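Hi D.,

Good news: the full-assembly prediction came through. Inputs first.
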Amino acid sequence: MSSKLYPRLAAVNIGKNKKLYIPYILSSVITIAMFYIMGSVDDNGGLKEMRGAEYLESMTLIGVIVIAVFSCIFLIYTNSYIIKQRKKEFGLYSVLGMEKKHIALIMLYETVYTFFICVIGGLLFGIIFDKLTYLMLCKLFSFEVRLGFHISLNGIFYTFITFGIIFLVNLVFNIIRIYRINPIELLHGGSVGEKEPKTKIISAILGIIFLAAGYAIAIVTKNPLNAINLFLVAVLCVIFGTFLLFMSGSIAFLKALKKNKSYYYSKKHFNSVSGMIYRMKQNAAGLSNICILSTMVLVTVSTTFSLYLGSEDSLKNRYPRDVMLNYYDYTYDEDGENPVFYSGRAEIVMKELENISKKEKIDIIDLRKSEFVSFRVGFDGSAINPNYSKSEEASYMFYFVTLKNYAELTGETIKLDDDEIIVFTSGDKLIGDSINILGKDYRVVKSMDSGSELHKIQYLTNTGGYILSNDNYIVVSDMSELMRISKAYPNGNAYDSLMYFDLSGTNEEKIQDVKVIRNYLDKSGIEFDLESKDESREDFYTLNGSFLFLGVFLGTLFLVVTVMIIYYKQITEGYSDRERFIIMQNVGMSRQEVKQTIHSQVLTVFFLPLITACIHLCFSFPIVSKLLSMFGLVNKTIFIISIAVTAAVFALIYMIVYLLTARTYYRIVSK
Amino acid sequence: MSILTVNNVGKIYTSRIGGSRVQALTDVSFSVEPGEYVAIMGESGSGKTTLLNIIASLDKPTSGEVKIAGQSLSRIKEKDLAAFRRNNLGFVFQDFNLLDTFSIRDNIFLPLVLSGMKHDEMQARLTPIASRLSIREILDKFPYEVSGGQKQRAAAARALITNPQLLLADEPTGALDSKSSDELLSIFTEINDFGQTILMVTHSVKAACTAKRVLFIKDGHVFHQLYKANMSDDEMFRRISDTLTIIATGGESNEQ
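Then the structure:
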């Protein structure tokens, strides 16, 4: 045989199977383009110079990894599907006298062709859209747009390597598959009767347990810090549960319906129940994939959108006032070990601020001083132990503020007796009804573990607004209680104070004012730390914008993959339904009835994943809103609106995809 | 009254691209009386499957008329056609046409379910048919688990369970081995003896021998017919073979 035969055959094969290959190539091109764009953003020097770019960088790295793993799974899945459909063709080659090594050779050529088509197409797309993405990012983060064309050689290199490996793995799989099967089997590949699936009660029950566990974790988790780790556990539980339930639960359910004779043997249900049982087995994996992917799209996009939309809101929570000034109201003793109270620094700072205000005509509005006591101690749930083992895990941070300071900031009107306290905790050991603090028993009147108040009370101390594990914030009745605790603490000074105030003017003017104030304080030689809401705004938008970018990007990727799986499913079902369609007509079902049966069945199967995804989304709400509260987003309305809009848009896209693919399906069926 | 009347039926296929016309049937007329067992024979391409499809109301003639139980098929509305087919006709196909998604039992029940019958009644109808066709043991199996002969008997059961006026069979022995063929044909003879009217299209001379009358179709019209009457199977076999030879040689001479 001429050596040109194989490359030519391979090219002809791809052309002849274009119904299978065009979507495969298209989706590969899209995933490759996305991979390249992510890699290129990660590699873009221009972005690195920008403020807050480090957030973006870590996001894009995550993005690159997720896309790589995902493309791998997806392309292997699609490839195995294509090869199954083409079994007959390869069987024919065998019968016509081709040896397996020749078939392998054809496959090699096919893989090489598709690889180059996909990678070159993907890179072209990637390079074109890279610029667009870059501009979009700049807009999103209000970066200054720098012109110039950027081609990431690293990006191209990694694309070749990653997808080269994926295609190679596919080729090896295909060749192994061909070698393990004899030609007769290949010839009959498509037509082997599918067995009716068995009911697997145990895995159905396991599925329910997994799903329930995932949901329970999502609902029960109260602590935002635990939420991060538990969220992953919940996600895994739900993924397992979904798979198991789709695989066996659906079949168990349908079989139960089938046992009910008067239900089953009716015109409406007869066909659809048996058809679904049959179809569930073939498609449970595909359906659960669609379901999980849809859930991922919905959760990522809605979460990142609400983070971005809620930026202003979280900024307000994190910084209740415009400027917070920390001036370390203590110094260290001669040994340099124990902190000692430095009286008078607050007065110096106050004077300096008055001076600045006068000289530079800066309005310093509503200046307040917050006084607090903080220390790291041991805690057993009922009493504080100042002499603890110095390990981080066994120790707890305690912050004390006065009711007056707390009320000034929050505007809350609460009364506390000498021995009453309010407790905010982010730690794993929740304070009970009472606690002994350095020799005095206090009664807990109110206890909170999240929400905007937690962020506000942090503002009264010098924590910097980050929720760390094992932090406890306690509001005491008045200054004398605070002083008592401060004095009772044996290991040096625990007292500190800070100031916060507002500025007037626009955001830009406030940033200017902050610069001036910082300048003056630098010159005065006071040790200080100044946090400005307006300076942080940019950081907030960059961080949340990075999240949004990643969310939308991955959301799009997941969506593309979902669409592809749906498309392939419709084609397979079309081919297998064609015969049923004809037989049913022959047996005395009208064309209309057949169409209705198949339509309602396909519709159910099609929208089952979407509905399940929406249920997953609802159950994810409590835990995801806990996670969002860590980022300072406590406004649930924004989150709910994001979810609703995302779900609506997604459902719309899903519908359009369904209608488009359903058309292809009917064309196949009624041929 | 005849169960089936075919009056001057013609069928011309027009291809979608190019508009070339193929005459499948020119002018076919015959009728089938209650209790008859008629076989239709002819060469490949003689139009016998087209004729069967028209009688089954799966296809429409371009000229002429088909009446089943006195009712003209062209007068029945499109949406009632399926129900009409279900209630009056039973089908046995060469490739069985059983649905893989149903057990044998459910395959047989399919037309009854479509007619909205109660489960108890369906079961009551199935029992005698299943034992007559000796498929009782395989009722709960699936089509891919049973042999070709069993599949065809199941298909026959599905055709008979509606008590059709007319049983239509399209090459019913075409996909069966000789033993299964014999079994099926003896079942056909038996149910015909019980009064079931049968119209069978076949290639097989042996199958045609079991019929009481054989129609030969050539070039789109009825060329000849044979009555079995008191003939033995062997004699019938010879007569059919002779007729087929005449058709074959006649076909050659036509081409000259």
